[in-house]
Design goal:
Glycerol-3-phosphate (1)-acyltransferase; two-stranded antiparallel sheet; alpha/beta; 225 residues; globular; seven-stranded mixed beta sheet
Length: 225
Amino acid sequence: MKHSKFMSYLWSYLGQFMFAIVYRTSRWKISGEEHFNNALASGKPIMLCVWHGRFSFPAFWLAKNHIHAYAIASRHGDAAIIARIFKRWGFGLIRGSSSRGKKDKGGRDVIREMNRIFDAPGTSIIAVTNDGPKGPPRIAKPGSLAIALKKNVQIITITGSASSYKVFGSWDRFRIPKPFSTIYLNIAPLLEMPKEKLSPEDEIKYLSDYMNKYQDEVDVLAENN
């Protein structure tokens, strides 16, 4: 959906206000936080993998804990609105789409910037919606994973759900908690790729299975409590 610059600013402030209400009035229950702390303490860069429909859970958690991360964001439509919110939350922005090919200028810019960030000294974090920007949902795309494996980057997923939530009718089934709910955040151990050589297709399936395992776990936890 296209928005004027003014409307993009307006919707971004309304969206930020909505996120603040639902996330600040809710109770948080976090499991696996030691996995993230260990990754930070290692001094190595991190690729944080999230599904598009659940990105707000880890994004707000990072923001409220003042953990700096980079996020990949398009310059157009609804993605531009989210990018404005992320910037005010303290995220660095990488503009473009990691799923586009090398012939696409935006895709080339993202690849170049991801390489630069991962090569920089210290623990840098790049958050990637691995099934974005248009799906299919909960199936990872190859671009960012190839970069992370080439750079020997730590790969981790943070998955979230809530005891009460609204599901939107978008392709990603975007989910946001309702106010005064309980939010469950599941931080997984680092992804360990098999020692044997995998095809690019099998690498993507391996990442998707890893992310879905922990997403399913937190969904069951939220539904049963």
